Amino acid sequence: MMWHMTEVKRRATVKDVALQAGVSRGTVSRVLNGQPYVSIEARDAVDQAIANLGFVPNRAARSLVTQNSQSIGLIVHEPHSVFVEDPNIGSILLGANAVLSDADYQLSCLIADSQRDIERLSRYLNGGLIDGVIVVSARVADPITRAISTLGLPAVYVGHPRDIGNADFVSIDNRSAAREVTSRLVATGRKRVGMIAAALDRDSGSDRLAGFVDALGARFEPQLVENVPLYSYADGQAGMKALLERSPDIDGVFAANDALAAGAIEVLKGAGREVPRDVGIVGFDDSAWATRCVPALSTVHQPAIEVGRAAASSVLAQLRGEPSAGGTLISCPIVWRDSA
Amino acid sequence: MMWHMTEVKRRATVKDVALQAGVSRGTVSRVLNGQPYVSIEARDAVDQAIANLGFVPNRAARSLVTQNSQSIGLIVHEPHSVFVEDPNIGSILLGANAVLSDADYQLSCLIADSQRDIERLSRYLNGGLIDGVIVVSARVADPITRAISTLGLPAVYVGHPRDIGNADFVSIDNRSAAREVTSRLVATGRKRVGMIAAALDRDSGSDRLAGFVDALGARFEPQLVENVPLYSYADGQAGMKALLERSPDIDGVFAANDALAAGAIEVLKGAGREVPRDVGIVGFDDSAWATRCVPALSTVHQPAIEVGRAAASSVLAQLRGEPSAGGTLISCPIVWRDSA
DNA sequence: ATGAAAGCGCTAACAA
DNA sequence: TTGTTAGCGCTTTCAT
Fold first, then answer.
1. CB distance A120–B104 less than 8 Å?
2. What dihedral angle (degrees, nearest 10) is formed by the CA atoms of A115, A119, A122, A124?
3. A50 shares a domain with A99
4. Of the candidates A81, A92, A84, A228, which has an alpha carbon nearest to the alpha carbon of residue A159?
5. Quick one: pLDDT band at residue A277, thresholds 50, 70, 90?
6. Strand, helix or coil at B103?
7. Do B238 and B167 belong together in one domain?
8. Are B190 and B268 members of one domain?
9. Bases in strand D with any atom closer than 7 Å to a protein CB
10. pLDDT tens digit sequence for B163-212
11. For A263, phi and psi rounded to 5 degrees?
């Protein structure tokens, strides 16, 4: 017989399986959870029935009794533009998913895009459908952060480890990378190395500047640093112009990201300086800008997949009751191309 | 008193609320669900107690009885590269989330990145934690697609409306957009308009070609179309070279996407043709390539947010039991810049 | 090794 | 208008 409409066939339950297998619901449950003390025959009968009936356990019911759900939320709380354009967040997702998948956890990515979202999310987290969370970019005094901490939900924060108390976090090691880049600029004979620093209100921005200062040590000259507000091409141009005006003999520049570096290169060219001959320049992110620049940009690669993996591992560890890892800093490989 | 450890305080239940409010659990439930027939006093007492106790209903328990979970899954089943780089998927998510959020549904984005993921997902969908799904890029004979249809789960497919039977889908209207672009090329005086077609195995690729053919009608000349495998810069170069060789008098090109168009422009410049004076060229996607090209690319904008919104609306409609919308084609605005 | 039975936290049907 | 009660589908003692 054929049917046209999708039948609303009642889904099989443990009871149905038990009936068909000729055992009790308890036994079915034991088989389901791979517990010992089940006879071969019983197990076979149950497996058989499960297959026949196409039975799949209802996770809501299971969650209700076990008080856990085998799923982890990943909350993305970023402005539209970042969410849409930043390739790192996709990689973080993929990395986290890989680790969680291996542990048989379901990753569920949740978007916080409006006040309403935030409120619904706080409720959702309370709802018992999620065992732990990875938060990509918490905000200060965020209701979500608050909900998480009052709830004692295992959590790990990615990227902005400020204002989250002593919770676990995972971040790339901005400071070390900046230090390394700057040192190399110096080591290759650059005498007057400057920096276009940006977004100092974010840890990424301030840490990159800190690394730059570290590396220069006593040789650090404040007038060789120009602070600009955003990680943007336009700000890169503005920053480079300022630097060039203040210190015409500048021969090395660490730009806090690739877009800034691209803007800087543009200005440098306009001023008749050749990169890397006259001025060496290094960016940060290893984004699409890097390979499209001429010359191709030397830059810091962000191992975003690793960040995702580490974040997932941390939540999993918390779930197992292991002592907190605290903060994890992922170190970034530097990609030396042609610009320095 | 201060406390150092996060107490594992048992979460309040309806029972606790009922007790504190001096009413029955039934009444608490009625308040929770905004049902009528609750006295003002009772309601106040319950609200009070809820606030005191910081009570949040357990969704697993609620799902168990109501058989629905107020959450919708969005399954992303794309190769890594697409997932990481394609800005459209981010926009689709945002669009879908906006609509679902308004309807008080939680969007949960699920990643299918491995065989294991796919199997776990199929089980997850069966688990009753999800009321409906939006599938971004189903595969042929995909276990997920199969699970969805045997389950009768309300679903809508985004982007690849092939092989999904008569299920609802949402897609951009590739064909109309291609038609419009081509017509305009002709209308602005181009006499020999060609196309670099790509990815003909995907509906996006074949539909764009179909639109091109539509627009040209009787004037269509097969030798003015070059098929290349991928939507890539390199294939754009190859395609343009072939076209130029076969038809040196070509004066208009519709490239199936922006990367192809960028490659084509490069080749055209190398061949001493000026864009748009000698050859007019139009891309597709309105991606980052478009504004970085010189001259800036005229191209088709993909309203990905709209796609997300439409997909979400469709699932919601199915959930309300409304008659299926079938397929929805979202029309794409064309952005005329400098290349044609 | 297995069955019976008690609940997980909530909603909904039924009385009152 | 409200309280009582019976489950939703599963796991988990506790007997046996």
1. yes
2. -120
3. no
4. A92
5. very high
6. coil
7. no
8. yes
9. 1-5, 7-13
10. 667 889 999 999 999 999 999 999 999 999 999 999 998 889 999 999 99
11. -60, -40
